[in-house]
Specification:
It is a single chain. This protein is α+β, with helices and mostly antiparallel strands. Helices cover 64% and strands 7% of the residues. It is built from 20 helices and six strands. α1 runs antiparallel to α6.
Length: 444
């Protein structure tokens, strides 16, 4: 992918900078305009460009940039805004600038925290990443600049950013120009192909070879070649059906279904593809011209390629990270697999599958590990009895809490408390080993 151009004829950076500065100064959040290649074009306040948590902890900066890119794709899919976590557990939300078949840039708000800084340090940095005291001391001056946002306000702030970016898009001649250029280019290609078909003597049959090659190019993430083949497929459909638009629409639908099934067979998450299908059919339901119908199919093709590209790994990381954050914030009450799956917009069965694949244990086992980990600190306070501790970490029955505690740590709560926390248990070693694996996968 080529470097982003600051040509004023293709992007109104001055307007975007003014909007970004206004948003940052009004909300107190750092805000960044980032190109699709990850270059920081402008930043106001404490934004991603000034964050050095990745560098200080040895995390892969490319994984961080990939999470921003994936979030931009999700923002387009979910209506122009998306709240997410970076690989280091810091919070962001994003809206894409110049939404078209391809996005030119993105406006990112963050990093910020939705939990206390102490909780972030103790859990995300010390527990998950096992950072030493010296590293955390070096990070603290920077982390003290990270804003705290109440979770219930994040939705409203992300909507405000979306409104800001919508203003940029509507006032940018580029947005209209890019869409027109894409549309005109596709129309020319389709028309040229129709003319070619008319000049051939042999009768037109369904282009199974082109269809097969199109699927191969999609699975290979070869966007340019796939778009060319898609134009030829559309040209063939229009040529064979003439002015029968209802039948043309049906054939376009069939082609999209074929592409979406191929994406699923190649490893894309079914729930993700089904959501794309819903958006595609909703967008095209009232379209009554071939140009707009094909333009939406080309955009859907681009999104399907994203499903089976390296973004799939990022998507799973995002799902697991959101699930873990939800568990961490709600372990003290009764929560179920179904509830957490709904929070990350997946079916319970699919969520259970990827959770176990990424975490290494099932949902209930992980929930028990979190609860017992929280109870260990409480046990060192003599003024709390076991019944109270059990209730505080989400267990209604004290005897069941004791049973689970021994299963996880190897000792009873009473034995652990009597030792003052010095008793040797396999729990911490087991948890540290598990999170070492997760960190190597880029989840934490």
């Amino acid at each position: 992918m080529g470097k982003f151009s600051l040509n004023p004829d293709t992007f109104d950076l001055k307007l975007a900078m003014e909007c970004l500065n206004t948003f940052s100064n009004s909300t107190g959040l750092g805000c960044t305009i980032m190109s699709r290649d990850g270059d920081v074009l402008h930043e106001a306040g404490f934004g991603c460009g000034q964050c050095f948590v990745c560098a200080e902890t040895g995390a892969d900066r490319r994984a961080c940039l990939q999470s921003h890119e994936y979030a931009m794709r999700e923002a387009e899919r979910f209506g122009g805004k998306y709240v997410y976590f970076c690989v280091m557990g810091l919070c962001f939300f994003v809206s894409p600038i110049l939404v078209s078949v391809d996005n030119a840039a993105k406006m990112i708000a963050g990093p910020f925290l939705m939990t206390d800084l102490d909780d972030y340090v103790s859990y995300d940095l010390q527990f998950r990443r096992n950072l030493d005291g010296n590293t955390i001391t070096r990070l603290m001056p920077m982390l003290n600049q990270v804003a705290y946002v109440q979770p219930e306000k994040v939705h409203f702030l992300s909507t405000l950013l979306f409104i800001t970016v919508s203003f940029i898009n509507k006032n940018s001649a580029t947005n209209r120009m890019l869409e027109n250029q894409d549309s005109e280019s596709m129309q020319r290609h389709i028309c040229d192909y129709i003319i070619k078909l008319k000049n051939e003597d042999t009768p037109l049959s369904y282009p199974f070879d082109t269809e097969r090659e199109l699927l191969e190019r999609v699975l290979a993430s070869d966007r340019e070649h796939a778009k060319k083949l898609l134009n030829e497929m559309t040209g063939g459909i229009v040529f064979s059906l003439g002015s029968d638009f209802p039948r043309i629409r049906t054939r376009i639908y069939e082609l999209f279904v074929l592409l979406s099934r191929a994406a699923i067979n190649f490893g894309a998450a079914p729930e993700y593809v089904f959501e794309l299908s819903h958006v595609f059919f909703t967008r095209t339901h009232d379209i009554n011209n071939i140009e707009d119908l094909h333009f939406n199919l080309a955009r859907a093709l681009n999104q399907l390629i994203d499903c089976i590209s390296p973004f799939e790994d990022v998507k799973n990381r995002g799902v697991i990270y959101k699930a873990v954050q939800f568990i961490q914030n709600n372990y003290h009450r009764k929560i179920t697999l179904d509830e957490v799956a709904r929070k990350v917009d997946l079916s319970a069965s699919y969520f259970s599958k990827i959770f176990k694949g990424e975490i290494g244990c099932n949902f209930n086992t992980y929930l028990n590990i979190v609860r017992i980990g929280k109870s260990i600190n409480l046990l060192l306070h003599d003024n709390l009895d076991l019944v109270s501790i059990a209730a505080l970490v989400g267990y209604e029955d004290q005897s069941y809490f004791s049973k689970v505690f021994k299963q996880v740590t190897g000792v009873t709560p009473h034995t652990f408390r009597k030792s003052g926390g010095s008793v040797s248990t396999p729990w911490q070693k087991q948890v540290n080993a598990s999170f070492t694996v997760l960190r190597s996968r880029g989840i934490f």
